[in-house]
Each structure stands twice: as structure tokens, then as C-alpha cells.
Amino acid sequence: MAVCDLAVVTYLWSPDAGSQYSAYGPDDVRLLQRMVARHLTVPHEFVVVTDRPEAFADDTHIRAVPIDWRTHVPGTCFVRLFTFAPDACTVLGKRVLQLDLDSVIVGGLDRIADRNEDLVLWRNPRRWCLTYPDVGYAARLALFNGSMLLHRGGTWAGIWEDFDPISPLAKDDQWWLSSRAGADCPYWDGSHGVYRLAPVNRPWTGVGAVLPENACFVTFPGDNAKPWEPATIAAYPWIAEHRR
Questions:
Q1: Does this model's pTM top 0.85?
Q2: Which residue from 32, 57, 59, 224 has the fewest beta carbons nearer than 10 Å?
Q3: What digits encode the pLDDT tens for the residues 15-65?
Q4: Domains (range + CATH), the chain
């Protein structure tokens, strides 16, 4: 079966022993697919890259692709670099909109997917909200966050080909992407409606209890304040409205 021009892709794999990352399951994938279906009118296919493809064998809305472990480093997300593998355009889609599972879609995604660049990344708000984003503490932060990206298959293959899982030169995929793409890479930020949930001690880095009018995508990086936690849902009522 030929792949679709646009694939919305997410990754699901069993966490390594001692991993800092939250454990997700097939139902998280299905929830994300439903949010995408409500908010993306551009023809697309929803794809999960996973070590559990059998969990989606009877799902008519999700196509499962077996995970490729060649860039896997325990405790990291480098396995997601498969998006840039030379053959990914024939396995995933000609263009890939990659989304994290710990995200809430709150508005239309057409303007997010309708970009012509070969690669679009989300600028890390922790870094770019600072007055001097290139010096001191800021310079140690990744330029981009890996929670969302848009990629044209067959381009930027060096992100995959040059990565050495035996001796990785970055601590996770967002640092690797940042180092390879550089600060001039096309991006989304708050002006495009892409946000993170703001930590209590850094309210200026994202959204709070009231969504900005232009918001379409909110992600929850780190292990604090995840969108399925009762306390988080109570503090941010828009989560229950949109995460379903």
C-alpha cells in the first residue's frame, strides 16, 4: 500500500528499565489520533512507530510500523531519529508531522502542517523566552524541542546517518536535532499557536489556566504536570475539554 503524502506520526515503545520517561500505552496513541482527526482537515494518515504493532492490528484509523532500534540508546528518545532515515519516506509518508503523545491539541492544525520547508522545528520556549538566548545558562539549553516537527522525507538524512548510538554526541534527540539544524532552521513558536504548559516557577515560558486565543498545540515536557494527572486537569480546565 502506498504511503500518504502527509503522515501524522507518533512513537510508542516500552520504556527501558530505570527510564525517566513515562510509560505510555496504545490508548494514548488512539487518544492522540482522535485529537488529530478533529483538528486536521488536510488529508493524512495516522501512523504509530512501535514495538507493539499487534496492539493496532484491528484499528482502522491507525497504521502501525515496527520500530527500528538502530539508533536506540537506553533511557533516551534517539529511536525517533528514524523519521530521518533515507527509507522513512516510503515507510512513513512523503511528509511527516511528528507529535509527542503527551500533547493536547486545542485548535486547528492545518496551518501547522501547511509549511513548504524541508524541516520545521519547535523553538524551545525555555531558551527563546530569555533576553539573551545565546549566552550563559541559555546556551546550555537545546535550540529546539522534539515534541513536534515537520519533515520532508528524503531530506536531512545526515541526522540519521551521522548518528552513532555507541558514542552519541548529544544527550537526547532534541539536542542532536538542534546541533544539526542550527538556529536558522524554520520554526514554530507561540506566534504560531504552539506552546508548552508553563511550570509554576517559570510562568512566562508557556500557557497557564487560560489558553491564548491562537493556541492549537500544547505539550507537557518533562515528568511534571502531565495532562492525565487529576491535579493537572483540575488546575487547567481546558485539558478536559480537548483531551478526549
A1: yes
A2: 57
A3: 887 666 667 999 999 999 999 999 999 999 999 999 999 999 999 999 999
A4: 6-192 (3.90.550.10)
